[in-house]
TrEMBL record:
Residues 218-246 are annotated as: Disordered. It comes from Rotaria sordida. The lineage of its organism: Eukaryota, Metazoa, Spiralia, Gnathifera, Rotifera. This is nitrile hydratase. The keyword Nucleotide-binding does not apply. Its EC number is 4.2.1.84. Residues 34-105 form the Nitrile hydratase beta subunit-like N-terminal domain. The keyword DNA-binding does not apply. It catalyses: an aliphatic primary amide = an aliphatic nitrile + H2O. Pfam families: NHase_alpha, NHase_beta_C, NHase_beta_N. InterPro entries: CN_Hdrase_a/SCN_Hdrase_g_sf (IPR036648), CN_Hdrtase_a/SCN_Hdrlase_g (IPR004232), CN_hydtase_beta-like_N (IPR049054), CN_hydtase_beta_C (IPR042262), CN_hydtase_beta_dom_C (IPR024690), Elect_transpt_acc-like_dom_sf (IPR008990). Keywords: Lyase, Metal-binding.
Length: 456
């Protein structure tokens, strides 16, 4: 007998207890977010490009996703799971080494009580471009110290690393400790145009992984075109200089940019940094290039804009012979109609009638007719939709304002492998004399997934 824990679809591994107590499953679908963050669009496009280069396939993607521990899986967003799976495949295939990824992502998480520095040691703070596995700007090191040199004033002991707990906290059993130091800096060295005494200092608590011996230069990736680490030393007092760096303005501008990014994107997610690091590493290794990545993102976005699915629906409404062929052989009929050279997955077209209502879902991942409708909406990918649609479809339909007669049959189409489904929604009454353009204007993406009818 196969253990239920090994079944990978969400509908199976979700228990009745989960249905009663899981807050996500008890809440209505979140349909407020229609656009994906840029890093999510990048991961989506990278997967397509790697498939085209025969580095991976969709089955490998699924395998990697399904290998994520359930307790962690439920805490990750859809594209975070993709990023983890793609990263695993890139490492397993050898197209990226762990070192390649670490250059962008940062060194592995580790816990240590070993003190590398002692009182009186001269140390340099890493520059802001220092690769860490924690998401910026949430770093427990003030930006005004990046690249600066100070002296260890005190060894404070070993403490749990707060940067780790802020984002990578899926493992509650592991405590990542790092030695903490109080480092003393000369104020004249830190701030341009400092008006205080030349001997004034500032003490700052800094975790060990942010420090290196002052004798070591900054890594190339840590240098800033306006401010190299080599320009200053701990005893440098800006004597005999007539320069005006505008460093304070740089920090102010950087803070504004970072806050704007946070406000726009929302709270960074645990694997977002991994996603961005993965894309950067693949570009550095010439596995993909920026131009093909941009074009793929554009292609993904345009599929929905071109109204391919809507054109198919309207043609089926207007042309009974076309609809007959469409329902019998969706793939070839659509290829001919849209003048496509190829279709990535076979297409099955189903029709909503007065007796049958079709609803599309993919309980294993989120298979979707992308070539016809574009990137699937967030709610379609969500755990809640994929769990609830097969179990209680009427509750899902109700959230979209679709109330069906009790005697109407609901037919779930679970797209689990190589088929993609498109629903021909019922044509509204009183549209017999409408033009093609008028009909196109009322066909919605959601109606072609089956979560709603078309209403005028």
């Amino acid at each position: 007998m196969v253990s239920l824990d090994r079944v990978s679809d969400l509908a199976s591994i979700t228990t009745e207890e989960d249905m009663k107590n899981d807050e996500e499953l008890l809440q209505p679908l979140d349909r407020s977010i229609e656009e994906y963050a840029y890093w999510e669009q990048q991961i989506d496009a990278v997967q397509t490009l790697l498939v085209g280069k025969r580095i991976m396939n969709v089955h490998m993607l699924r395998k990697g996703i399904e290998s994520i521990d359930k307790s962690i899986y439920n805490k990750l967003s859809y594209y975070e799971r993709w990023a983890i799976s793609i990263a695993k495949r890139c490492l397993e295939s050898g197209i990226l080494t762990q070192e390649d990824l670490n250059k962008k992502y940062g060194p592995p998480l580790h816990s240590t009580d070993e003190q590398l520095f002692h009182v009186g040691d001269k140390v340099r703070v890493h520059h802001e471009n220092y690769a860490t596995r924690w998401i910026k700007p949430h770093l427990r090191t003030p930006g005004y110290l990046y690249g600066k040199v100070g002296i260890i004033e005190r060894c404070c002991g070993s403490y749990p690393n707060p940067e780790y707990f802020a984002y990578d906290n899926t493992d509650n059993t592991t405590v990542h400790h790092q030695p903490l130091y109080r480092v003393r800096f000369n104020q004249k060295y830190i701030w341009n145009h400092y008006e205080g005494n030349a001997n004034d200092t500032i003490d700052v608590e800094i975790y060990q992984h942010w420090l290196m011996p002052a004798s070591e230069p900054c890594a190339p990736t840590e240098k800033d075109e306006d401010e190299g680490c080599h320009k200053h030393d701990v005893d440098h007092q800006h004597k005999d200089h007539d320069h005006d760096h505008d460093h304070d303005h740089m920090h102010e501008a950087r803070a504004i940019i970072e806050q704007t990014a946070v406000d726009r994107e929302g709270t960074p997610l645990p694997a977002q940094h991994l996603s961005e690091s993965l894309v950067s590493a693949l570009i550095d290794k010439n596995i993909i290039n920026r131009e093909e990545l941009r074009k793929q993102i554009e292609t993904n976005q345009m599929a929905g804009v071109e109204q391919r699915g809507a054109n198919i629906v309207v043609e089926a409404w207007l042309n009974p012979e076309f609809k007959k062929r469409l329902l019998k052989d969706g793939t070839n009929t659509i290829m001919e109609f849209l003048k496509l050279d190829k279709i990535k997955n076979d297409l099955v077209v189903v029709e909503n009638t007065d007796k049958i209502h079709n609803l599309i879902v993919c309980t294993l991942c989120s298979c979707y007719p992308r070539q016809l409708l574009g990137i699937p909406p967030g709610w379609y990918k969500s755990r809640s939709y994929r769990v609830r649609a097969p179990r209680n479809p009427r509750s899902i339909l109700k959230e979209f304002g679709t109330i069906l007669p009790n005697d109407m049959k609901i037919q779930i189409c679970d797209s689990t492998a190589d088929l993609r489904y498109l629903v021909i929604p019922r044509r509204p009454e009183n549209t017999e004399n409408w033009s093609r353009e008028q009909l196109l204007s009322i066909v919605t993406r959601d109606s072609m997934v089956g979560v709603c009818d078309i209403t005028l």
